[in-house]
Amino acid sequence: MKRDALFSKLKEFGLTTQKVYMDEAFSRNIGLLTEEEQEKLANAKVAIPGMGGVGGVHLITLIRTGVGKFHLADFDTYEPANINRQFGARVPDFGRPKLDVMVEQALSINPYLEINEFPEGINEANMDDFLGGVEVVLDGLDFFNFDTRRLLFNRAREKGTYVITAGPLGFSSAMLIFSPHEGMGFDEYFDIHDVMPDEEKYLSFATGLAPKATHIKYMDFSRVDFSSRAGPSSSIACQLCSAMAATEAVRILLKRKRIKSVPYYYQFDPYTQEYRKGYLFFGNRNPIQRAKMFYVKTFLLEKKKELFPMPPELPKVKVTEKTVPGDVVRYIIKAGIQAPSGDNAQPWKFSWQGNTISLYLNREADYSFFNIKQLASIISCGAAIENMRLAATAFGLEGRIAYLPDAKNDNLMASMELCVRGGKKDPLCNSIWNRHTNRKLYDKKPIPESILGHLASRVSDIPGAKLHLVTDESDLKKIAKMVYKVDRIRTEHRPLHEHLCKMIRFTDREAQEKRDGLPLKNLEAGLAGEVFLRMTRPWWVMNLVNTSGLGRMVALHSYQAILNSSAAALLTVRGMETQDFLRGGQALERVWLTMTQKGLSMQPMTAITLFWLRCQLEGDRAFSEDHRGLLQETFEEYQELFPDVNFHEEGQIMLFRMGRGGPIKQCTYRKDLEAFLRDEGKKDNEIWDTQNPF
After folding, report:
1. pLDDT > 80? residue 610
2. Domain residues of the chain, as ranges?
3. Which of 69, 88, 202, 273 is the most buried (most CB within 10 A)?
4. Does residue 605 have a pLDDT over 50?
5. Does domain 437-659 have CATH number 3.40.930.10?
6. pLDDT confidence of residue 320
7. Quick one: CA torsion of 277, 282, 283, 287, rounded to 10 degrees?
């Protein structure tokens, strides 16, 4: 509503002047504040950078307390991911500027407010204007907007302005007050230096904000990712931040005593029912603080960098309708090579011309017994396509896919034309860099129906794809028995055993040098399992172990893995053509990324589906007589378990288990981008040998 309409509404209630309205609207504050203090607040000016989870609530809390003048800054718009914690986030306002929405909200509470808007956000150029005449700043900047925060705090100290920062941590609020007259400055307290990497800055800020953190007792830190600037936050904590910060702002504005600035710190956690406060001598230069940061940096962050893929930095370039910059194309291809592939064989080649990326099947990468007619690799190509399509949305691009665009080149799987469409980055983008296989035993707690339904719906977006879920405990046991039988074949079949040993990287050095295959720790076999795998590398040893019956211990491990899962699922597509399996790969990656986003773990159980495809396409002559009997028995049970699948006309993409698993020891590596770029000067038959050794 416009101000005139708001004033007309007030007149209907006899509130004809600002003083009459203010006296009535804030009458319940009297007793905590005097009339003179209430009037002083009405003339006070507060700056709030950021109208998100904390900043938006700061604004509303201070308005209802009676503060009458504001400088407000925000350049962002509302989106669905803001719903859980941001005051102004409502479905009707998706896509609208946060600043516009919050100013409307503010004026609807007090039409007499004086608001100076900074819709471009705050920066070096407008910082002095933003702080002009302001008595106190309530920090509402995003946690990861560190450089702007540093500029704000340091400039405010120079101009004689208080700054209060309250951070939502779990269900708690941690608060610091920076005084322009006493205590420590921002750089001094957090021990910040110009040459620090971004991750160290974030770590210093988080550690200094809550020196005696309470939230670490219950927060899932696997969901905190400094590299992708993501972490959990709640409305409860945001409300608490505002209550604590607004109270201190009122104390400062009214010049009441007991203002304790840094290195004093405060944290209140209603979840653990703890209130922590103290005086942090020397700030982050305190020896205990330095020890904390050294431990996190050395044993957590650096280890994570070593074991898990780090997302490349988003290119800071302008994308136009005519030309997509090469840096953007390279970023999109890097997302593509994060796709899963059988034993991490990485069977892709890429090229691009103009705004079109071409994806080729590299047949030479995987000639294993499992990869019948290259179908496993084709599924992997489909997953790479989906990753690239998703990554393109980070630049406002739409990936228009043409499957098998050249009938003369059966290695060319797809081309993707990048077109400017605007819009938001797909929420699954961040999961591209976090997706992995988890071979640990999972928590057997059921997955909520809402999440299972969401997984099924994400798959159904791909034409012909369908997810067949198994959640009943007795049915899971049936799958476990089937997996046990086919995994017996895996250990007793020489080509399969030798290929697996060829793809295992038994040392860290080998894994880092080759950057493909399966690092030994990735298999989660435990010390005894790792010793077993090392000892049985030669086929004659494995054959001897199989003869003694000990080889079935491997199959038993798979059996236990299924039993220790929340659910299993079979992904199918309608059809058996190459294009169907490409789409199936897209659907697989989409559901896998969604599970990653939801905090679920996944492990492919591919032997059943790939053995079925081999028998269907080439018969069972590649198996021994004993194994044929096991397969026939397994396939009968398999078809009974999924009666709605037409096994002779529908393509089977993957059988997998899922649940909530603990953090894994080691992710797989990827080769450098240059290894996947196609040599356009050679023909396909010069690049790849097309003779399958099996």
Report:
1. yes
2. 3-306, 326-430+673-687, 437-659
3. 88
4. yes
5. no
6. 72
7. -90
